[in-house]
């Protein structure tokens, strides 16, 4: 029988079995995305073959062009809309949440702790359960069927405030804030000149996670934009996949195009996203 | 996430007000009012688009509220809820939601634990592996489900091809969408695929904060890595396990995207020809925006809310006992 020493796992060197296991996991994770790409480059015959094609074909541009020129799908517009919606939501979330997080971490005001508890409580509320009433609210505002209705609920997040508060409490020394104020700096200037530069890493993490969530959101944009000529890319994709005769290579070319921006984000900001999740960043 | 992190800021004295009347006024404004201005965008937006709809939803549920017939209005009392209790579609979707939920949560969290344990080693290319397993988390569900729909296709689907490779080929190829069990498995596979890596990172982060001497002083002398995992590591990360179970419960019971896109006609919200994989969230969408009956849809959301509360409570109680036998 093999004997083992009592050593913490994180001090134990990975064996060949560890790497084998992780490689299988990686293969499992990447395969659907890879196969999405394969089908988006294939011909109808290659997709219908048994077993289906597993190596990329040469048809990507043809398939992509078909997606873009389909009349009722508005795919090009949908990509622009998704960029617009996700960017506005991300920028607003970063600004409003860092502003509130700064106030909660470094400013003194009456009811601060009670209000922070309110923020934490709202973290647990599943927003999706209010969509019927939210739709009625948007109706009263006259926003139903517009991009505004898709953007407005995403402008702030309780998680963002919580995350920013935690980060600012540690990353910005009280002394720095106090001395700036003794020099006569107004609070807004302290936020702009001292806090914002100090929390760049947290802004990157929250920004990436928010962008991904906004980009992938489906149910609410579907309710709002289905049937309009300015859908988000997820709504356009569901349109592309509906109908009596679905052409796989075309649908998957659309799916791949709508996924590429996120793959790029993962390549650029993967480190930050991993760190954000491991620091306890959860879905808002 | 704990409240212990909520420590107050320093209690040092603020600088004295600067001389001059205007200055004084500005100083008061800057210290007394500005903090509220800073937090107000969050609270105002969240009140309008987050909290209010949730409360208002309770009122809509008690009213007749139809999108196609605005004249049909007024209080409905509990009529929507009574209708719910005898609605076969509702009970069917409840069963589907739970079936898919169990098939996705249990394997998902177990696999995440094992993968986290693999990552919790001294590895070459640490960041590479971690980023790699996050690919499914970033991929839009709408897009990935379209791939899985082809994977689980009846004719020439890869899943059926694999089945035939390992000797389970049928005379007529398996139509995954046609039966409850097979459709549930297909959808649960998609959910598992998306969330395993994410949960693994949550577990990994908890595992790395376990003090090393816990392992060195372990009563289980010379334990194999496998026993080490179950007898030391898992009990030590129990709070995070509880957290992920609650998260999966809240998310899993609201499942919408996967069953929507798995349908032959993704925008029908039918959940298959016989509703064999229609979830509650899908039914709410269908009742509200296809049948245009917002009052009834609101009562369904309300019911789903209660179900989530109860199930989350039960799961909380169950998972809190992990490690109780230590």
TrEMBL record, chain A:
A Pfam match: BPD_transp_1
User: What InterPro entries does the record tag this protein with?
Assistant: MetI-like, MetI-like_sf
Query: Where is this gene product found?
Result: Cell membrane
What are the ABC transmembrane type-1 domain coordinates in residue numbering? 79-269
Q: Topology versus the membrane, per the UniProt entry?
A: Multi-pass membrane protein
User: Which residues are listed as membrane-spanning?
Assistant: 16-37, 73-102, 114-137, 143-163, 190-215, 247-268
Keyword terms of this UniProt record: Cell membrane, Membrane, Transmembrane, Transmembrane helix, Transport
Q: Which PROSITE patterns match?
A: ABC_TM1
Family, similarity comment: Belongs to the binding-protein-dependent transport system permease family.
Tell me what this protein is called. Carbohydrate ABC transporter permease
Automatic annotation (TrEMBL), chain B:
Q: Which family does this protein fall into?
A: Belongs to the binding-protein-dependent transport system permease family.
Location of this chain's protein in the cell: Cell membrane
Q: Which InterPro entries match?
A: ABC_transporter_permease, MetI-like, MetI-like_sf
List UniProt keywords, sorted A-Z. Answer: Cell membrane, Membrane, Transmembrane, Transmembrane helix, Transport
* Descriptive protein name: Sugar ABC transporter permease
SUPFAM superfamilies tied to this protein: MetI-like (SSF161098)
Origin organism of this chain?
A: Paractinoplanes aksuensis
Residues crossing the lipid bilayer are: 33-56, 98-119, 131-153, 181-204, 236-256, 296-318
Q: Which Pfam families match?
A: BPD_transp_1 (PF00528)
The answer on whether this UniProt entry bears the keyword Transmembrane reads yes
Q: How does it sit in the membrane?
A: Multi-pass membrane protein
Domain of life, source organism: Bacteria
Domain (ABC transmembrane type-1): residue spans on this chain: 94-315
Keyword Membrane set for record? yes
Q: Which residue ranges are recorded for the region named Disordered?
A: 1-21
């Amino acid at each position: 029988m093999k004997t083992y020493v009592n050593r913490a796992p994180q001090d134990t060197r990975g064996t060949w079995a560890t790497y084998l296991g992780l490689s299988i996991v990686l293969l499992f994770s990447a395969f659907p995305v890879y196969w999405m790409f394969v089908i988006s480059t294939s011909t109808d015959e290659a997709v219908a073959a048994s077993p289906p094609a597993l190596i990329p074909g040469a048809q990507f541009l043809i398939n992509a062009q078909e997606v873009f020129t389909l009349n009722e799908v508005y795919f090009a517009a949908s990509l622009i809309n998704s960029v617009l919606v996700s960017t506005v939501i991300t920028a607003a979330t970063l600004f409003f949440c860092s502003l509130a997080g700064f106030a909660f971490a470094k400013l003194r005001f009456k009811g601060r702790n009670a209000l922070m508890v309110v923020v934490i409580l709202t973290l647990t509320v599943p927003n999706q359960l209010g969509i019927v009433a939210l739709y009625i609210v948007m109706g009263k505002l006259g926003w139903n069927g517009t991009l505004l209705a898709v953007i407005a609920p995403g402008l702030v997040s309780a998680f963002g405030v919580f995350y920013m508060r935690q980060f600012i409490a540690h990353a910005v020394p009280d002394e720095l804030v106090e001395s700036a104020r003794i020099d006569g700096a107004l609070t807004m200037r302290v936020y702009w000149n001292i806090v914002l530069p100090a929390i760049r890493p947290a802004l990157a993490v929250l920004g990436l996670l928010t962008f991904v969530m906004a980009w992938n959101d489906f149910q609410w944009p579907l309710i709002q934009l289905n049937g309009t000529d300015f859908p988000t890319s997820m709504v356009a994709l569901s349109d592309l996949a509906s109908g009596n005769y679905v052409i796989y290579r075309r649908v998957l070319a659309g799916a791949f195009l709508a996924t590429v921006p996120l793959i790029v984000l993962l390549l650029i900001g993967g480190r930050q996203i991993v760190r954000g999740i491991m620091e306890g960043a959860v879905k808002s | 996430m704990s409240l212990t992190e909520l420590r107050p800021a320093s209690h040092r004295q603020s600088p004295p007000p600067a001389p001059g009347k205007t200055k004084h006024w500005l100083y008061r404004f800057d210290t007394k009012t500005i903090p509220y201005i800073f937090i107000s965008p969050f609270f105002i937006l969240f009140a309008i688009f987050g909290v209010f709809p949730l409360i208002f939803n309770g009122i809509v549920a008690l009213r007749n509220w139809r999108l196609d017939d605005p004249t049909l209005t007024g209080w409905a009392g509990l009529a929507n809820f009574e209708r719910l209790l005898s609605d076969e579609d509702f009970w069917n979707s409840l069963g589907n939601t739970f079936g898919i939920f169990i098939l996705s949560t249990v394997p998902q969290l177990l696999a995440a634990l094992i993968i986290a344990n693999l990552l919790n080693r001294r590895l070459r290319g640490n960041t590479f592996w971690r980023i790699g397993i996050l690919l499914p988390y970033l991929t839009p569900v709408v897009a990935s489900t379209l791939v899985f729909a082809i994977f689980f296709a009846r004719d020439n689907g890869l899943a059926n091809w694999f089945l035939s490779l390992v000797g389970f080929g049928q005379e007529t190829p398996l139509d995954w969408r046609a039966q409850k069990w097979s459709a549930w498995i297909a959808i649960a596979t998609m959910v598992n695929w998306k969330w395993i890596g994410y949960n693994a990172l949550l577990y990994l982060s908890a595992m790395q904060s376990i003090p090393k001497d816990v392992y060195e002083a372990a009563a289980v002398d010379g334990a194999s890595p496998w026993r080490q995992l179950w007898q030391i590591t898992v009990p030590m990360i129990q709070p995070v396990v509880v957290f992920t179970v609650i998260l999966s419960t809240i998310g899993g019971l609201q499942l919408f995207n996967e069953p929507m896109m798995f349908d032959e006609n993704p925008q029908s919200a039918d959940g298959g020809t016989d509703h064999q994989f229609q979830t509650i969230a899908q039914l709410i969408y269908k009742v509200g925006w296809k049948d245009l009956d917002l009052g009834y849809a609101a009562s369904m959301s309300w019911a789903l809310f209660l179900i989530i509360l109860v199930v989350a409570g039960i799961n909380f109680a169950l998972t809190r006992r992990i490690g109780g036998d230590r």
